[in-house]
Amino acid sequence: MAGVSSCIKYSMFIFNFLFWVCGSIILGVSIWIRVSGAQQGMDSSMLTGVNLLIAVGSIIMVLGFLGCCGAVRESRCMLMLFFIGLLLIVILQVTGGILGAVYKSQVELALNLTLTANIEALQSTTGAQKEYQEAFQKFERENQCCGLLNGAEDWGKNFNEPASKICNCELEKPSSSDLCTEYQGRYIYKKPCGEVIMKIVKDNLAIIMGISFGLAVIEILGLVFSMTLYCQIRRK
């Protein structure tokens, strides 16, 4: 009877350890993208691919552990569960990548609709949206932008409140900077924050697709390793 190849066995163990690390990375990156997207008021439909990858990252970590144990203990049951689970993960990741590619072509329209709806929150004077308005002002300062789509006009009456520092250009010489423009006697940031958010979304979609298809290639190698080891254990 043929024995189990030590090379295949320990290659499988090392692969699954790295696979577990990859699962941790994809989970962490996906959660970061999801949280940052929620803070910027993005519609949940635009983050479908991210939500899918959060589930994928969690399952990958479990499968990595399962594959390590299956290789070390030479358990056919664990290896078969690993193979089936990994195959499903590959299918899910390819689906997530396709969703990302589809949304990338439609992201500008969907985002503009979302930003238009959020303009009302910036113009609110009731105090109900105060927390959102403060968070958005912080976003404006950090990214040197103003408003969502139409600059300072998006803030409505709130822009002219006493002691308001909304959109204020905080550069040393705002009058000579291309980042600033004069509006109602004040220097404010010229670029709408919608452009900044658009860039963040597109960059994140590129990250999602890159992670999805890159890991899919690695996971196919995992399928080959696990099935090879499974067959060797069965013949032993």
Description:
The chain contains five helices and two strands; from the N terminus they run H-H-H-H-E-E-H. It has 236 residues and is mainly alpha-helical. It is elongated, with a radius of gyration of 25 Å. The mean pLDDT is 80.
Task: Record keyword descriptors for this entry.
236 residues; mainly alpha; two-stranded antiparallel sheet; 5 helices
Strand order of the largest sheet: 1-2
What overall form do the CA principal axes indicate? elongated
What's the pLDDT, averaged over the residues? Answer: 80
* Rg calc: 25 Å
The number of E-state strands comes to: 2
What helical percentage do the residues reach? 55-70%
The DSSP helix count reads: 5
List the helices and strands and how they pair.
Blueprint: H1 6-39, H2 48-73, H3 76-123, H4 130-143, E1 180-183, E2 186-189, H5 193-235
Antiparallel strand pairs: 1-2
Helix pairs in contact: 1-2, 1-5, 2-3, 2-5, 3-5
